Amino acid sequence: MNPPAHILVLGGTTEARRLATALSGTPGVRVTTSLAGRVSRPGGLPGEVRVGGFGGPEGLAAWLREHRVSALVDATHPFAATISEHAVRAAHATGVPAVLLRRPGWRPGPGDRWHDAASLDDAARRLPALGSRVFLTTGRLGLAAFAALDGPHFLVRSVEPPGPPLPRHCEVLLARGPFTVEGETELLRDRRIDVLVTKDSGGTATAAKLTAARTLGVPVLVVRRPPPPAGATVIEDVPQVLALLRERGLTGA
Ligand code: NAP
Fold first, then answer.
1. Quick check: 21 and 43 in contact, CB under 8 A?
2. On the CB side of 65, how many CA atoms lie within 13 Å of its CA?
3. For residue 252, what pLDDT is reported?
4. HSE-up of residue 128 (Cα within 13 Å, Cβ side)
5. What is the pLDDT of residue 38?
6. Mean pLDDT by groups of 10 residues along the chain of 253 residues
7. Is 80 in the pocket of ligand 1 (CB under 6 A)?
8. Which fold would CATH assign to domain 5-104+227-247?
């Protein structure tokens, strides 16, 4: 009997979870999800789970060889640029087929008042001109970029408590999506938010804040994504990844 196809999913996203769920139900397939270990209680995942960095592209390549990985799916967050670069390099070094699962970015619609920022630092530079009561949803690890802004009041939402440095006027709201339009509208209104800052994460789990901002006429400062690494095969959704793995005979079905 053939050994099961072993798929390594680089995770930390809703799509990675969906993919692992689909693959773990596929006969002849073994799935391992890799997590960076940033979130202390990531919740149960189907299949096997490993946690922590690999030690650069060479470490990832060694892991692929040692665990006889048949295919690598990089399903990390669109802003996790380093690990995505490492995935391309490790796949190239080992010859393991790899794809990058990247959900599409958000696009503004009629009534949206969006402003682009090229990076978190750029967002911090543009912010004071846009508002003074800020809803900051760019994640706890990027907060340092805003720490020097003494004027605005920040409502910071994150899954885990952020560490220093924090902006001087800062209130932290611990919460994990998905969020509803009703809840987000109420939050923006209650806290008298006059500008929202977000990464262009894409997807539906955290998109409700954009609808709420549109409804209330609140401007949104959108931090644009880093480009995918050169040489990556980019696929936008889980069904397409599953189809490609099947087509290439990598899931044995
Ligand atoms: P990053 O800057 O691209 O990666 C930094 C280092 O963390 C990598 O070099 C790698 O260490 C390790 N790493 C990252 N993802 C890993 C994974 N899935 N499995 C094992 N090691 C991983 O990543 P990040 O922006 O800090 O994001 C870390 C994780 O959080 C990602 O898995 C991502 O999907 C998730 N996440 C990120 C964001 C965001 O906005 N950046 C938002 C939501 C979720 P080694 O070099 O030692 O292998």
1. no
2. 11
3. 58
4. 10
5. 87
6. 90 95 94 91 86 98 98 97 98 97 96 97 98 96 95 96 95 95 98 98 94 98 97 96 93 63
7. yes
8. Rossmann fold (3.40.50)
**3 state SS of 35:** strand
**For the domain 114-223, what is the CATH code?**
3.40.50.720
- Phi, psi (rounded to 5 degrees) for 155: -105, 110
Amino acid symbol at 122: D
Cis omega (within 30 of 0) on the bond before 178? Answer: yes
Q: Does residue 143 line the site of ligand 1, with CB under 6 A?
A: no
Q: Is the dihedral of CA 134, 137, 139, 140 positive or negative?
A: positive
- Look at residue 39 in the predicted model and tell me its pLDDT: 79
> Any idea of the CA torsion for 115, 120, 126, 131, to the nearest 10 degrees?
80
Tell which one of 7, 17, 32, 82 to mutate to probe ligand 1, the residue whose CB is within 8 A of the most ligand atoms: 82
Domain ranges in the chain with CATH number 3.40.50.720: 5-104+227-247, 114-223
Q: Give the global pTM.
A: 0.94
Q: What is the pLDDT of residue 96?
A: 97
